[in-house]
Amino acid sequence: MTDMLVKLYELEVDWPAVTAHQQQGIHYRHPLGSETDLILQWVQDRFSAGWHSEVAIALSQRPPRILIAVQDGHLLGMACYDTAALGMFGPMAVAESHRGQGIGRLLLQLTLWHMGAMGYAYAVIGWVSSEEFYAKAVGAIAIPESRPGLWQTALKRS
Predict the structure, then answer these.
(1) What is the homologous superfamily of the domain 2-149 according to CATH?
(2) Where in the chain are the domains?
């Protein structure tokens, strides 16, 4: 897995797809403070302890460094930034039952759009699992020799 770079000043958001999702009842927004425990439990039930820690960091910031996708009061997915390091995107996740609907792509685009609005010119997507997805969705390019990157001295569970 490698890191990838995105030029936020050239980012294009698929606003018609965002509108189409809104018409289907899927909304993208920052979480409310009262939703913190529900989001952390959702992440803990599905993903690693490291992701749980990073999402907790995102939720503790003001404004939160996380966007969520919600439908009928249910969390469909989330995307964070500024958690592992400033200027880094991730983690991002979509519920298995809702994958393949474009939710991850829109969470990615909207979260990066927020980063650009905050003044970032570039974003680094760390340890990507699918270079093709990120290249197609936001024009990300691989950063040579970026593995293991930031995580090369990360703590390991005993």
Answers:
(1) Gcn5-related N-acetyltransferase (GNAT) (3.40.630.30)
(2) 2-149
Torsion of CA 38, 40, 42, 45, to 10 degrees: -130
- What's this model's pTM, rounded to 2 decimal places? 0.94
Can you give the pLDDT of all 158 residues of the chain as single tens digits?
A: 799 999 999 999 999 999 999 999 999 999 999 999 999 999 999 988 889 999 999 999 999 999 999 999 999 999 999 999 999 999 999 999 999 999 999 999 999 999 999 999 999 999 898 999 999 999 999 999 988 787 778 888 77
At residue 89, what are phi and psi to the nearest 5 degrees?
Answer: -90, 140
* Alpha carbons 41 and 50: distance in angstroms, whole number: 13
